[in-house]
Every structure is written in structure tokens, then in C-alpha cells.
Amino acid sequence: MNILHIISSPRGEASNSIKLGNAIISKLQQQYPDAKVVVKDLTHNPFPHLEEVHLNAFFTPAENHTEEHKAAIRHSNEAIQQIVEADILVIGAPMYNFGISSVLKAWIDHIARAGVTFRYTANGPEGLLKNKKAYIAVATGGVYEGDLRSIDFVTPYLKHVLGFIGITDVVFNKAEGFAMSALQATALEKGISNIVL
Ligand SMILES: Cc1cc2nc3c(=O)[nH]c(=O)nc-3n(C[C@H](O)[C@H](O)[C@H](O)COP(=O)(O)O)c2cc1C
């Protein structure tokens, strides 16, 4: 059992999404004591915004790649390989401005590749990263329930984009209310005790 922990908060030991992700991994390790955990911290050497050279490399067949294409696509290939080797992904997702952090979005832009992680068929798009499970560790300042659910763009976006590349078994675990005085003291503890595997 290989677990890939994707970190996208720059707050290190203070990060709620990292703590929640680590708690999910501890629970998984109780189920799979031999599980190997690989940590990918996207805040260290973040993936760049997609530039023209990346797009050219993505859409040029590998046999025609120039040295410049090869250099531009290397990190994308490595990131996809890391996912291929994982059985379970644990993705830490702090909410920033109602969506995911830009480092997480940049990683997604480098792993969603036509012909590699998804393809278009006569029946529509097909995700190619099959037989994986993802746990999302979401940390938010507010609580997105009731009417406010519609302004949480973390949950629906990650569910959709992971499904698009084939990862359809996605479980969201949330720690909420870190910006709310009545909730912040217990938000992490509550999020951890509510973890669903
Ligand atoms: C730049 C920034 C933007 C944020 N935007 C939101 C937001 O739109 N909604 C919200 O509920 N919380 C927001 N927060 C609060 C974070 O989601 C909260 O602090 C969470 O714990 C961050 O995860 P982390 O502790 O793993 O870094 C924001 C925090 C920062 C630093």
C-alpha cells in the first residue's frame, strides 16, 4: 500500500490541513501497518504556472521533444509517476479565497494531461488514473454549510477534477471554523474526530 501525501499549505507545523492529513494517514496506517508514505510538499519548489513551453511539450509527441520540451515536461512526468505508484492520495487543501491554494492548482495543471491522465473518447472524457482512492483534508476559516455551501469551491472543484483524471473514489474530511472565535479552539480536534475513511 503506497500513500502519497500532497501538502499545499506553506504553514508547516502550524498548518491545519497538514495536521488533518497526518491524522488521516495515521488512521490509514492502523489499517495498513506496512503502508509506505511519500510526502510531496508543493510549497517547496512549487510547480510553475503553465507557460507556452509547457503547453508545447504537453501537446508534442514525446519522440519529437526538443531538449527544451524535455526539461519543461520532466516535473509533470515525475508528478504523474508519483500518482501512478500510489494506491491512496491524501491531499491537504487549505481554503484560500474560497478555492484551493495556487500551488495545488499549479500541480493539478501539470498532472491533468490529455492522452496521459485523461483522454477523449466517443463517449466523452475518460480518466486514466484508475483504482485509486483519495482523501482530501480541507481546512477552512469559515463553515460552509447551508446556503454557504455554494461558495465552497474547494470541494466541488477537487471532486470534479480528480474524477476527470480517473480518481472517482474521493472522501472529503474537513476541519472548519479556524477564523470563528466560537469554533477555532476545537476546530482541529473536531475535524480529526470526524475523520471518515
Ligand atoms: C490567504 C488566505 C486566504 C484565506 N481565505 C479563506 C476563505 O476564503 N475562506 C475561509 O473559510 N477561510 C479562508 N482562509 C482561512 C484558512 O482556510 C484557514 O486558516 C486554514 O486553516 C488554512 O489551512 P492551513 O492551516 O493548512 O494553512 C484563508 C487564509 C489565508 C491565509
From TrEMBL:
<comment type="function">
    <text>Quinone reductase that provides resistance to thiol-specific stress caused by electrophilic quinones.</text>
</comment>
<comment type="subunit">
    <text>Homodimer.</text>
</comment>
<dbReference type="GO" id="GO:0009055">
    <property type="term" value="F:electron transfer activity"/>
</dbReference>
<dbReference type="GO" id="GO:0010181">
    <property type="term" value="F:FMN binding"/>
</dbReference>
<dbReference type="InterPro" id="IPR050104">
    <property type="entry name" value="FMN-dep_NADH:Q_OxRdtase_AzoR1"/>
</dbReference>
<feature type="binding site">
    <location>
        <begin position="95"/>
        <end position="98"/>
    </location>
    <ligand>
        <name>FMN</name>
    </ligand>
</feature>
<comment type="similarity">
    <text>Belongs to the azoreductase type 1 family.</text>
</comment>
<comment type="function">
    <text>Also exhibits azoreductase activity. Catalyzes the reductive cleavage of the azo bond in aromatic azo compounds to the corresponding amines.</text>
</comment>
<dbReference type="GO" id="GO:0016652">
    <property type="term" value="F:oxidoreductase activity, acting on NAD(P)H as acceptor"/>
</dbReference>
<keyword id="KW-0560">Oxidoreductase</keyword>
<protein>
    <recommendedName>
        <fullName>FMN dependent NADH:quinone oxidoreductase</fullName>
        <ecNumber>1.6.5.-</ecNumber>
        <ecNumber>1.7.1.17</ecNumber>
    </recommendedName>
</protein>
<feature type="binding site">
    <location>
        <position position="9"/>
    </location>
    <ligand>
        <name>FMN</name>
    </ligand>
</feature>
<keyword id="KW-0288">FMN</keyword>
<feature type="binding site">
    <location>
        <begin position="15"/>
        <end position="17"/>
    </location>
    <ligand>
        <name>FMN</name>
    </ligand>
</feature>
<dbReference type="Pfam" id="PF02525">
    <property type="entry name" value="Flavodoxin_2"/>
</dbReference>
<feature type="domain" description="Flavodoxin-like fold">
    <location>
        <begin position="1"/>
        <end position="191"/>
    </location>
</feature>
<dbReference type="InterPro" id="IPR003680">
    <property type="entry name" value="Flavodoxin_fold"/>
</dbReference>
<dbReference type="InterPro" id="IPR023048">
    <property type="entry name" value="NADH:quinone_OxRdtase_FMN_depd"/>
</dbReference>
<keyword id="KW-0520">NAD</keyword>
<keyword id="KW-0285">Flavoprotein</keyword>
<dbReference type="InterPro" id="IPR029039">
    <property type="entry name" value="Flavoprotein-like_sf"/>
</dbReference>
<dbReference type="GO" id="GO:0016655">
    <property type="term" value="F:oxidoreductase activity, acting on NAD(P)H, quinone or similar compound as acceptor"/>
</dbReference>
